[in-house]
């Protein structure tokens, strides 16, 4: 296999790490919506925590994305 | 189709002479498109708040309501997370939030996106973590080690917890910089790729025959670009907000070390 081809395959494989981030962010928002529909009056106060959790989870997906870019452009 | 990465290339706008600073060495003061867009972002923020508060009244006008709304939104955020001492750090959080927000939005209005440069986001992340370390050591002194040794954890667990806490602290500036960088870069690449589909599919459809179906794909891509642009406006705000929230959380860790409220 050519080195160039292996590089592209590796970059594609690196982005698979985003699957985990996708599942994680989905779980966070589903948990928030379940809580919010049961007690809507408490939902507004938890918005910051919701975004915080989503951002911290998403960071891992971004790491996979950056790793893919690193493989592709270095 | 033009490369989707072309938009992130640094190009010189104004060439200025190199200045020799004793002790540091030569510093290139040339203005490139990234610095240009950062300067415009900073100027826009100052201009907005100057105009909005120029004729401040007890019953506020439209602009004043906007300015006061942003102000009190971040004020509530800071005091909500850090507590009554949060006001001390409000200026820093507010400045970083507005600067990141302005740079993100400028990127969507046909300007260069400064936040898609790792150098810019790494500087912002490094600044935040240096402030956290400075405040932490000034307020807690040698007690800073409590950051990595949570209270009420048995000693045999500490062997495991302390290295994890330490590594996660070291990763904070890295994730802070990469999150903003990755989100803005990824969003703009996706926009460019979909916009490229419109052009290349239309060119294919223009050759006639069965390829005329390409117009349907081009129309679909155009719809995708519009939808993605709307999503990018949400992401632009959200990432600035996340940066401000995380700055507050990291500051809260060292300001209220040992006594959580």
Automatic annotation (TrEMBL), chain A:
Keywords on record: ATP synthesis, Cell membrane, CF(0), Hydrogen ion transport, Ion transport, Lipid-binding, Membrane, Transmembrane, Transmembrane helix, Transport
Annotated compartments: Cell membrane; Membrane
Membrane association type: Multi-pass membrane protein
Keyword Membrane tagged: yes
Domain V-ATPase proteolipid subunit C-like: 9-71
NCBIfam families: PRK07558.1
Role description: F(1)F(0) ATP synthase produces ATP from ADP in the presence of a proton or sodium gradient. F-type ATPases consist of two structural domains, F(1) containing the extramembraneous catalytic core and F(0) containing the membrane proton channel, linked together by a central stalk and a peripheral stalk. During catalysis, ATP synthesis in the catalytic domain of F(1) is coupled via a rotary mechanism of the central stalk subunits to proton translocation. Key component of the F(0) channel; it plays a direct role in translocation across the membrane. A homomeric c-ring of between 10-14 subunits forms the central stalk rotor element with the F(1) delta and epsilon subunits.
Name the record gives this protein: ATP synthase subunit c
């Amino acid at each position: 296999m050519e080195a160039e081809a292996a590089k592209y395959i590796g970059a594609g494989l690196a982005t698979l790490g985003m699957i985990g981030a996708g599942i994680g962010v989905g779980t966070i928002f589903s948990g928030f919506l379940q809580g919010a529909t049961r007690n809507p009056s408490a939902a507004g106060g938890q918005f910051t925590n919701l975004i915080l959790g989503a951002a911290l989870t998403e960071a891992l997906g971004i790491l996979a994305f950056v790793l893919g870019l690193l493989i592709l452009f270095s | 189709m033009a490369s989707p990465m072309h938009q992130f290339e640094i190009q010189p706008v104004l060439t200025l002479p190199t200045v020799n600073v004793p002790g540091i060495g030569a510093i290139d003061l040339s203005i490139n498109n990234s610095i240009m867009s950062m300067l415009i972002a900073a100027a826009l923020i100052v201009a907005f708040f100057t105009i909005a508060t120029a004729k401040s009244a007890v019953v506020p006008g439209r602009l004043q309501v906007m300015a006061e709304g942003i102000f009190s939104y971040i004020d509530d955020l800071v005091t909500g997370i850090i507590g009554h001492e949060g006001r001390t750090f409000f200026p820093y959080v507010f400045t970083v939030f507005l600067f990141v927000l302005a740079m993100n939005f400028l990127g969507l209005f046909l300007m260069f996106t400064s936040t898609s440069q790792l150098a810019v986001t790494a500087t912002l992340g490094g600044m935040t973590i240096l402030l956290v370390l400075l405040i932490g050591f000034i307020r807690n002194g040698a007690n800073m080690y409590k950051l990595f040794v949570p209270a009420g954890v048995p000693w045999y667990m500490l062997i495991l917890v302390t290295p994890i806490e330490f590594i996660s602290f070291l990763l904070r500036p890295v994730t802070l910089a990469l999150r903003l960088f990755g989100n803005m870069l990824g969003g703009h690449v996706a926009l460019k790729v979909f916009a490229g589909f419109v052009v290349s599919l239309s060119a294919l459809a223009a050759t006639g025959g069965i390829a005329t179906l390409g117009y349907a794909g081009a129309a679909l891509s155009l719809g995708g670009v519009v939808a993605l642009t709307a999503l990018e406006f949400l992401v632009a705000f959200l990432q600035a907000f996340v940066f401000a929230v995380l700055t507050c959380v990291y500051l809260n860790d060292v300001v209220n070390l040992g006594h959580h409220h």
